[in-house]
Specification:
With 557 residues, this protein is an alpha+beta fold. It has 2 domains: 341 residues, Rossmann fold (3-Layer(aba) Sandwich); 130 residues, Jelly Rolls, CATH 2.60.120.1290. It is 18% helix and 25% strand. It is built from 10 helices and 27 strands. The strands form 6 sheets. Strands 5, 6, 7, 8, 10, 12, 23, 24 and 25 form a 9-stranded mixed sheet that branches. The protein has a 6-stranded antiparallel sheet with strand order 13-21-15-19-18-17, with no helix packed on it. A hairpin with a 4-residue loop joins strand 2 and strand 3. Helix 4 runs parallel beside helix 8 and helix 6 runs parallel beside helix 7. It is globular. Belongs to the peptidase S8 family. Its EC number is 3.4.-.-. This is S8 family peptidase. One of its GO terms (biological process) is proteolysis. Keywords: Hydrolase, Protease, Serine protease.
Length: 557
């Protein structure tokens, strides 16, 4: 078994510059020009392995941007204009998600052939891996067409989407539209390149105390998926828009981290765009913020834990120059001592009355950001109100953020009692060059309550733009149709708009140096803004996406 698949090995990030210093028998998986994965044997898994190895070397856990029009974004005006008529022809849409139901009518041409260029299914090991990758199975357009002509398609291409999220996202961007409006995708002439992610390794779930039955993904697999999509695009010399309808609340919400940095670099390359969901954490009460109060050097806040959340993690990120110590008090009034910051410690405390275990990593210098991170991990947690005391040992006023996990990693019954809806955009949406999309209800022009809010922890303006995201028609596995809601659908909608720009700029030769970052700025400048809001703001970003304004400026259309 490949070590990247083997739960007996941790997959830890390592800088490529360090690899020549290691003995030749060490095993690495290449990620990009900067990073690889080092596969380290797990002899007996210990929660404090995160402590033995730095936080920055572990992948973050990612979840789906919950699922659950077109005229609102000016798309129809552009497509009906004979001088433009942009439908995504000769542009790839890259999907990193739960897979795709390739047998669905939404992904077929009129002659019954597929509109999918290739599928890399990371979960199937019986086929041929893509060139320069060591696991999973790649299914080409020819093989998918052969399967579609067979009485037993899955015997030839066994890749399926049992969740439906990836199928829905793919269809919103680039599905084949139906005459009855059950589906009206943005770029029905674009081709799809799809990666079905494998689930996060159990050892990574165990490190962050994620229940075994929760669907989630690991950061390094998403990076490999992005690398694959770019390799297909460059091999066939076609532009690509990568749609990321996934998110994580781990990390500093500042655009640092391996995946964020990698995607940020890709968005600077001509012919590569990245559309990212802002996440659906805006109304989940999973963010707490303590603003500095003069002459107060401590803060107490409360965490309500629901009945179904016996294990989870939480992160506290403090602003320099504070040095923060923490203590934790259970609902039955047992308390830890005050835990001071250290270079790389891991302290386990057992609350004897409840038999709850808490691991505290109070890291004075987190390597990716240089800021203080306090990682709290709870196991066998009793429900009720937990109290957390934070204190600056410098005895000066200070400030910090705290975040709980995203998506279904915890239930809605675990939350901060004095929560803050701001700074809830999930990674990698806090990254400068990526187009970060929030969602609004296109029927009444109101923001979706669940949409993640900015700004980033360091004050960068995010989200960039808002797009329709409420009950968007989509395809579902099994040749069914339905609707989807959330920022993932808004990201899919906007990915299609980015593909239209690439078709005009690169495919038609109007501006062959067009990058995802340039499209980002162009869509921001040409967004629709109403008179009732000041822009930019942390809810709408720069306004609602409106592609016809862009072409009026650049093409005189």
């Amino acid at each position: 078994m490949q070590k990247v698949l083997d739960n007996n090995y941790y997959d830890l990030f390592i800088n490529n510059a360090l690899i020549p210093l290691y003995p030749t028998y060490y095993d690495f998986t290449h990620l990009n020009q900067t990073l690889s994965l080092e596969h380290i044997p797990v002899e007996s898994m210990n929660i404090c392995d995160l402590g033995l190895y730095p936080y920055s070397r572990f992948s973050s856990i990612y979840t789906l941007s919950s699922l659950a029009s077109i005229d609102k974004s000016g798309i129809t005006a552009v497509q009906n204009n004979p001088d433009l008529s942009l439908f995504g022809k000769d542009v790839f849409i890259g999907i990193i998600d739960t897979g795709i139901d390739y047998r669905h009518q939404a992904f077929k041409n009129k002659d019954g052939t597929t509109r999918i260029q290739s599928i890399w299914d990371q979960t199937i090991q019986s086929g041929s891996s893509p060139e320069s990758f060591t696991f999973g199975s790649e299914y080409s357009r020819d093989l998918i067409n052969k399967a579609l002509q067979s009485n037993d398609p899955l015997s030839i291409v066994p890749s399926v989407d049992t969740n439906g999220h990836g199928t829905a996202i793919s269809s919103i961007v680039a599905g084949t539209s139906t005459n009855d409006q059950r589906l009206h995708s943005v770029v029905p002439e674009a081709d799809l390149v799809v990666v079905k992610l494998k689930e996060a390794k159990k050892n990574l779930k165990d490190i962050f105390l994620v229940p075994d039955d929760v669907l989630c993904f690991q950061e390094s697999d998403i990076m490999l998926a992005a690398r694959y999509l770019v390799s297909v695009s460059q091999r066939l010399n076609k532009p690509i828009v990568i749609c990321i309808a996934l998110g994580s609340s781990q990390g500093g919400h500042d655009g640092n981290g391996p995946l964020s940095s990698f995607l940020d670099d890709l968005a600077q390359i001509p012919g590569i765009g990245v559309a990212v969901a802002a996440g659906n954490e805006g109304n989940k009460r999973r963010h707490y913020f303590h603003a500095p109060v003069p002459q107060f050097f401590y803060n107490d806040f409360e965490l309500n834990v629901g009945n179904d959340d016996s294990m989870f993690s939480m992160e506290i990120w403090a602003y320099s120059p504070a040095q923060v110590s923490v203590s934790i008090t259970s609902p039955n009034h047992e308390s830890t001592q005050l835990i001071p910051p250290a270079i790389n410690s891991c302290i386990n405390y057992t609350f004897h009355l409840s038999q709850t275990d808490v691991w505290i990593n109070n890291i004075i210098f987190e390597q990716n950001t240089g800021d203080q991170l306090i990682l709290l991990r709870f196991k066998n947690t009793i429900p009720g109100t937990w109290h957390i005391h934070a204190e600056n040992i410098n005895q000066d006023s200070f400030s910090f953020h705290a975040w709980l996990p995203t998506g279904d990693l915890i239930s809605d019954e675990t939350y901060f009692t004095n929560s803050d809806p701001d700074v809830t955009i999930t990674s990698p949406g806090n990254t400068r060059s990526l187009l970060t999309i929030t969602a609004y209800d296109q029927f009444n022009d109101s923001i979706l309550e669940e949409s993640g809010r900015g700004y980033t922890r360091l004050g960068l303006i995010k989200p960039d733009i808002a797009a329709p995201g409420y009950r968007i028609p989509c395809a579902l596995p099994g040749n069914r149709y339905g609707t989807a809601t959330g920022t993932g659908t808004a990201a899919a909608h906007t990915a299609g708009i980015m593909a239209m720009v690439f078709e005009w700029a690169i495919v038609r030769g109007n501006y062959i140096q067009m990058t995802g970052n340039i499209i980002n700025r162009q869509l921001v400048w040409n967004a629709m803004r109403d008179d009732n809001n000041a822009y930019p703001n942390n809810i709408w970003g720069y306004g609602k996406v409106e592609i016809s304004n862009f072409f009026k400026v650049v093409d005189g259309a």
